[in-house]
Amino acid sequence: MANINVLNTHLKQMSIDTVRKNVRAMNPILINGIGTVGSRIAHLLLSAHIPIHGVKFSASKDDIKSQEILALYKSFGAFPLIAAQGDNLDQRTQQFKNLNLNVESHDLTTYSVVIDGTDGDVTKNNVNNYKKHNQKFLIQGGSDPELTNKDFVSAPNSVSQHITNFPQARQVSCNTTFGSTALGVVLNVIPANEIQSVEMELHRRCRDPGEKKEMKESLELKTSHHAEDVMSVLPQLHGKVTSKANVNAWEHFHHTQIIINFTKQVNANIITNQFQSYPRCIVVNQKITEDARSGMNMLMDVSKKLNVTDADTLLPIYSIHQVSDKSIMIRGFTPQRSIIALSCIDWIWSATGKHATWQSAFDATNRSVKWHGHSIADLKKGFEEKLK
């Protein structure tokens, strides 16, 4: 028996070593605009031993985004940073060096795979350059949907089995990821033709933790773009989804409820079981999601116990409620900064040619990445057990 255990351990280590050898042989992934979201994608990539380079416009000891890069350096070691082109380049380059950031000069057109975390006209200019040089790229949610002809999110029923059809795409926003994930899980057990309508109500946070923006709120619910974005990645629900949103004076999370009306009777317990078995979500008691502020406080307390900084849970949080025989409510929290990061890793596996199918990429990400030292499975289990 001892010999068998030794052999199994040896074979497991050989498999891990082979994976690490393969990813180390990969060309660096460029994160163009390594800020709030980009640093979280970088965290996952570095945890899987995938090399990265980052582009940033400026650096300062008072800049939260610079602090997050320094934290990545401390956890994973230094990686090259490129000062973005523009005015005062020499002065900005010196700012990087003053913070002991590893600033280098590289031609951005030589990278074959790019994650773009910029915004506005900068993104538009970048996309033109990516297309000109035939680079594979994924731009982040919040950017102009007209910049690409593909919206991407790695959630149940949101991509075809083969994800090689997304070489130039837009990663949808955090709230769209929350909604698409929830509805995708429902579609695992309920066919689209039995879903009559979906109503999304989003109560959005007004700033990230540590930002110096004023805590303003605007409590009027207005029609939002999230319904159209959800239907862009779940076309089987075309014409069935509506959404309204407002802004609340809090940090950390968006708080959302989704009412789904069906044409037939449905048992919420069956849907709950689907959420519990889905690897990339946290399922909690219904009471935790009833009041946004108290629920967020509970999440932040658990996050501290799990050493997950600023309650950045990575995974969306859901509770499932039976409203009537033919309707359910899904309510929960969106970790605004990190929720899209896992989708980006799935896309990278495809873009680099390592995995051709969604399931293969999805499974590879779940196996290989860690979030503040936790595997995806342990992260889900840790939050769910401590929030019982």
Give an account of the 3D structure.
With 388 residues, this protein is of the alpha/beta class. Helix 9 links the parallel strand 13 and strand 14. The chain folds into two domains: 2-148, Rossmann fold, CATH 3.40.50; 174-339 and 376-386, Dihydrodipicolinate Reductase, domain 2, CATH 3.30.360.10. The model has no long low-confidence stretch (mean pLDDT 93). The longest helix has 23 residues, at 2-24. The protein contains twelve helices and 17 strands. Helix 6 (174-187) packs across helix 7. The strands form three sheets. It has an eight-stranded parallel β-sheet, sandwiched between helices.
Concise structural overview:
It is built from 12 helices and 17 strands. 38% of the residues lie in helices and 22% in strands.
State the main characteristics:
single chain; Rossmann fold; Dihydrodipicolinate Reductase, domain 2; 17 strands
CATH architecture of the largest domain: 2-Layer Sandwich
CATH superfamily of the largest domain: Dihydrodipicolinate Reductase, domain 2
* Beta content: 15-25%
- For the biggest β-sheet, the strand order reads 4-3-2-1-5-6-8-7
Mean pLDDT, nearest integer?
93
CATH class of the largest domain: Alpha Beta
